[in-house]
Amino acid sequence: MEDRFFKFSLLAKFPEVIHGISTRAYGNMSLYRGDKSKTIKNREHFLSGLRAELDKVTIPEMIHGSKIISVGARERGKGACDTKNDIKGADGLITREKDLFLLVTAADCLPILAYDPALQIVAAAHCGWRGIIGGIVDELISKFRHFGAEEENIIIGIGPGICQKHFTVKKDVLEQFLENYPQAVLLRNKDGYIDLKKAILLDLKKNRLLAQNIEVAKLCPACQNGIFGSHRLEKDQAPTSAAVIGMRE
Ligand SMILES: [Zn+2]
């Protein structure tokens, strides 16, 4: 953990990659809640620490779906300052374009940042339980394959996000996880606890990604609430974090 943002050591090895996840020290990063002009200032502040610019950022709508959309130079800046032109229907973005920074927000949901150094492709996805059940991880890897990427080259950073201890779910959600990700479920006193990071790891393994290319942030916004905002604990007052990735020319 650097001063005010989190980085994955697997991605930090690549000088051409710019990435980071904001802590609550930077304030709320979502334009869907709170003061809009403040969010824009917070985004600018966070990005300047990573030497990225807000007008080169592209942001998906994030609807707890599983769609990953490919973006290029024409989409640069979309969603950066206004939700009207963010990438509708998408929960993740993928690009081969340099100087285009993909940004997703989360407060308990898990950001995934991905990079293929062989083909120079980056992607960012926002994953909650709905997206995971909807197959967002399969969708992400299939987009990489579509660009010709080989699974063994793809590097993935997962989280920070809600931990199993803090993620109790209702019966209908529990049943979906018992059916699709039984290894990610803990049953105790009739309550079900879901390990979303584990569910993502199971999907990545199924897609033949290499364990040594995957890094999981062992941080949870509810456990480390002084560092990250948690929607579970703070409801709409939770400052949403931003996770960003892009490549320099
Ligand atoms: Zn926790």
Topology of helices and strands:
Blueprint: E1 5-6, H1 9-12, E2 17-22, H2 36-49, E3 57-58, E4 68-70, E5 92-95, E6 101-106, E7 110-116, E8 121-127, H3 129-133, H4 136-146, E9 155-158, E10 168-169, H5 171-180, E11 185-188, E12 191-194, H6 196-206, E13 214-216, H7 231-234, E14 241-247
Bound molecules: zinc ion.
Largest beta-sheet characterization? 6 strands, mixed
- Small-molecule binders: zinc ion
Q: Note the beta-strand portion.
A: 15-25%
Q: Figure out the total of helices.
A: 7
Low-confidence stretches: none
> How do the SSEs run, as a string of H and E?
EHEHEEEEEEHHEEHEEHEHE
CATH top level label: Alpha Beta
Summarize the amount of helix as a percent range: 10-25%
Helix-and-strand structural type: alpha+beta
Radius of gyration (CA) equals 17 Å
